[in-house]
From TrEMBL:
The chain crosses the membrane at residues 44-62, 69-89. Keywords: Membrane, Transmembrane, Transmembrane helix. This is Membrane protein. It comes from the Bacteria.
Length: 124
């Protein structure tokens, strides 16, 4: 099972990054809404982060560039964390319990994503 996970893990990471990266271009509005308010031009930042996710996905998918891509993915997960914080801050001002659950639920989810990317880098 462990060796199967080592094989599937980079494929799943690359697929997840690619999916989210594409969503940044197909449906950018939800992502633009959670860009921290102190940052300029949310639409451009969504496009940049979407492109970064697609680039990371491509790097992770190729065994020769997997280590670098996984490390870049971990850095990307750290870099986009402020958007999750902004989403939680915005959610705290609403009575929509579903939105609050999603917003607060995203906060601890970054840590396993970072750990996953680092594990893929280590196993590359």
């Amino acid at each position: 099972m462990a060796s199967r996970w080592k094989t599937a893990s980079p494929v799943l990471l690359a697929g997840g990054l690619a999916t989210i990266g594409v969503l940044h271009f197909v449906a950018p509005k939800p992502f633009a809404r959670i860009v921290p308010k102190v940052l300029p031009n949310p639409e451009a930042l969504v496009a940049i982060s979407g492109a970064a996710e697609l680039a990371c996905a491509a790097l992770v998918a190729v065994p020769r560039t997997r280590r670098f891509g996984a490390l870049a993915s971990a850095a990307l997960f750290v870099g986009v964390y402020p958007a999750n914080v902004q989403m939680a801050v915005d959610a705290s001002k609403t009575s929509n319990t579903r939105y609050k659950a999603i917003a607060y639920g995203r906060l601890p989810f970054q840590a396993p994503l970072i750990a996953w990317a680092l594990r893929v880098a280590k196993n590359a």
